[in-house]
Amino acid sequence: MRFTIDKEQFLKSLNAASKAVPSKSASPYLTNLKLELNEKGLEILGSNGDISIKATVPYMVNDREIIRNVGLGSTLVNSRILTEIVRNVEGGELSVEVIDEAVMKIDDSRSSFKLNCIKAEEYPDIDLERSGTEIKISCYAFASLVDQSAFAASNKDVRPILTALHLEAENGKLVATATDSARLARKEITIDDNTRFACNVPAKTVSDIVHMFDNAKEVIVSVSPKKILFDFDNVIVASRLIPGEYPVTRSIIPTVFNYTLEANAAELLSAMNRVRILSADTEPVVTITMREEEVEVSAKSDTNGSALEKISTYQYAGERLSVSFNSQFVIDAIKALKCEDVTICFMGEMKPFVVKNPKDNSVVELITPMRTF
Amino acid sequence: MRFTIDKEQFLKSLNAASKAVPSKSASPYLTNLKLELNEKGLEILGSNGDISIKATVPYMVNDREIIRNVGLGSTLVNSRILTEIVRNVEGGELSVEVIDEAVMKIDDSRSSFKLNCIKAEEYPDIDLERSGTEIKISCYAFASLVDQSAFAASNKDVRPILTALHLEAENGKLVATATDSARLARKEITIDDNTRFACNVPAKTVSDIVHMFDNAKEVIVSVSPKKILFDFDNVIVASRLIPGEYPVTRSIIPTVFNYTLEANAAELLSAMNRVRILSADTEPVVTITMREEEVEVSAKSDTNGSALEKISTYQYAGERLSVSFNSQFVIDAIKALKCEDVTICFMGEMKPFVVKNPKDNSVVELITPMRTF
């Protein structure tokens, strides 16, 4: 294998593929990237077994030659070292040549590296073929679907299914649901066709993937029984799915409420952030006490003392109500909604409540209150 | 105790004093700050036993009233919680009142906090009186003294004396020396009078202290047998000293050399930073090979391969010489010198070498080479 390559394009693809590469691995081959120069360009593949990323440097970008002086071939080379070298060289172009399937020579105008490398055949077989149900979505829409829901998934492995983002396509809608059993987030987007599928993607993985979209416009998502595949802008990402039945959550979300608070999101956030300073070493429980004449946010700690703040911009409809909750859940929910005003709908002191964007019905954040006595 | 205080000035002093406060402590009182409002202003004291910091908010700053509506007194209050609260309130002024020596009320226009607090008498006695030999130095000069030397101290507790920065004042000079036994840094500054003292200050502590100087112009350093005290700009910092005799280092530094390399500091740094990528998981050993016609920086790793870079801007006088070293030591030394060109003087392949600023004789960095076979 031999090629001369534009440094920035090489680095961009190395950065993408190396995201999947573990720093340590039981299989020594997985700490490597697989580089393959073929008729499509330079394909760079990284994998940790659960998630695999293939980024392709094309021969041409906007009529500019990116790879030249080529001899096709493939090899395995340490991901971290190769990426660090390409990041740190000063020249705009690099010459790469693999000699005797054992040494990769990398030269720019100043530096000369000889990296030990391994035959490409040693790399595990990784299936990155699209199969199963396919759907093409705007990256922006899919990223908002994930960003507004995946944060509510569990980060504990006690019930693996709760670490998933549940994706369900049906009747022209794609619905994403995540819950750690104390809170739930649900977001839907409209999809064009009558695609039908349901799957459970690791929530952390799919969050990482949408942050790789960068300037990509559209993503092709394909779902098959054991894997989900994302294809966008010269990058293909495959992730395993989490097996098992996702809990039925649709009926949990209440629709009739007795109390409704509408408040300025920024003011509510900063009030909660201040009063919860008191619960420094414990769960950051905050209480919100609402009457039509007054809304107060407060927190109390046996060790540290108490804090109280009045909200100035609000509208409240309902009897006097006091609800306590893990403030992190409400802060996460409000931030995910990305709106100026926020509506919180309650059914009672100990009943789950809903945090909503009054201007957007496509997303619902549900939170279970806490007892404070 | 009661006062109304400017938020920014209060926060500045809280930030300073809380730097000494441990997040956990065997003595529960030490996670608190001691606040005392007396005729000098609001004195805020934090300590971890080894280092103590007292920051004073004065009544007036540049004819502007900072503290008003006062009732003298003192109390102990949780450092982290108080500092976080003052950092996060929105108003420009805070009212503080201690009620029954048990509750500190803090109010701004929006928020109201009641912090549990403790009688000031519970706090350990901390000696912040100036005593012993005293010297007044420009903060800039003292900070450069410390920044160019303290980094070479050991960060391992095997020989506690090597974790110290050795300060010695004699014959109109103040000399700072640090060594971890594989490298040594020595910097001197001129002092006005005939002050004489010698002491061993924890190197990490004194580095932290000079970074607190901020806009202060002068610092009064006073050295007594068991403690060193720094007094600058409404802040007093006291540190314990490290007991024991500092090793005699003056005779170690060679003065006659057989080989001299002068090179551009930035070029040498980036060449070392690139080639040492190869030694990712081991000590970052780099070899420099010098002839009058060519200077090369290289690194080798059995696992990863090898790297080589030629230096373009240099002057070398001497026979061909090849020296290997821990590149981190040379990088630290060059960075500490803060100069455009750097001079490295060698006596031989396995003899300690000296890294110098050709325009500044006040600082010497000595490094022991390594064997690479």
Task: Kindly describe this structure.
- Two copies of one chain form a homodimer.
- Chain A has 373 residues and is α+β, with helices and mostly antiparallel strands.
- Helix content of chain A is 16%, strand content 45%.
- Chain A has six helices and 28 strands.
- Chain A has helices at residues 7-18, 79-88, 139-147, 203-210, 265-275, 327-337; strands at residues 2-6, 32-38, 41-47, 51-58, 60-61, 64-65, 67-71, 73-78, 93-99, 103-107, 111-118, 133-138, 164-170, 173-179, 183-190, 197-202, 218-223, 227-232, 235-240, 259-264, 285-290, 295-301, 305-310, 314-317, 321-326, 341-346, 353-357, 360-367.
- In chain A, the strands form four sheets. In chain A, strands 7-1-9-10-11-8-2-3-4-19-18-17-12 form a 13-stranded antiparallel sheet.
- In chain A, a hairpin with a 2-residue loop joins strand 13 and strand 14.
- In chain A, helix 1 (7-18) packs antiparallel against helix 2 (79-88) and helix 3 runs antiparallel to helix 4 (203-210).
- The longest helix of chain A has 12 residues, at 7-18.
- The N and C termini of chain A lie far apart (69 Å).
- The mean pLDDT of chain A is 95.
- At the A-B interface, helix 2, strand 11, helix 5 and strand 23 of A face helix 2, strand 11, helix 5 and strand 23 of B.
- Strand 11 (111-118) of chain A pairs antiparallel with strand 23 of chain B.
